[in-house]
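Annual report, structural modelling task.

Input specification for the phosphoric acid mono(formamide)ester complex:
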Amino acid sequence: MADGGFGRLIGRKRHLLGIAGLDPRAVASVLDLAETYISLARKGGARDVLRGRTVLNLFFETSTRTRTSFELAGKRLGADVINMSPSGSAMAKGESLLDTATTLNAMAIDVLVVRHDQAGTAALLAQKVEACVINAGDGAHEHPTQALLDALTIRRHRGTLAGLTVAICGDVLHSRVARSNVRLLTMMGSRVRLCGPPTLLPAGAAEWGVEVFTDLRAALREADVVMMLRLQRERMSRAFVPSSREYFRFYGLDPEKLALAKPDALVMHPGPMNRGVEIDSSVADDLAHSVIEEQVEMGVAVRMAVLDLLVRDARRNA
Ligand code: CP
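The model returned the following structure:
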């Protein structure tokens, strides 16, 4: 926010392409605004904020939480929201992504929310369309609104992100959630531990300003927050773990391993969960620790705040 706006400026518009490109002030501003939207996220009531604006959800990968919460967020703020999938569009007839972008541009969309399996797709579209582009997940690169909603959830419980020990465990290699969270949490003063089997830890992770572990028990010791990641089999070109049963034994979070973390440790998961693979149901459903449902709830408030900030800036610069 050094130049007074939220997100990355390309041309005359700002875009949320990743946590990279935000600074602590920008993160705090979106979390603070999201706090004010929590009750409105539940029941609506701020329909003037985006009245007359159009938000297009363009999802090339499956999604339950992100797509639905962007739709709800836009509607709560009064926007017209359109959902488009490649199978239901002219892309199924061979139209390219960039031709699709040009077509959408001609319809004067205000915000384009895009998820794609290729890293950099949101950034590419931001160069081609006049809409504000929000990255809803690009390959294993970034998922910025997930990291923001995770940060809001943690901050609501701990009052701060600074000084916390956060263990992010599981399939780090394929995880855009891990990358966005590492960027955000280290920027805000958390100590981040990454843990997974050697095959699922990215080369060079130790240079991300984190501690790297292959022993889950060691990674969990005295952690304030435990964030479990799904095995992302859809991104795996080969077998990275011997079997789900063996993976759960060494890397699955169960009550016995969780007991190594702080007594009041928060358990998080971006979803979708694979119960019995990376997390045991008794932990996922234990409301003394698990804030997994609250993460989903905070997703609507955070996405309302992101839409508001980007459109407000676009209006100012129109
Ligand atoms: N966390 C997340 O991105 O979930 P969805 O795939 O359901 O959107």
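The chain has a mean pLDDT of 94.
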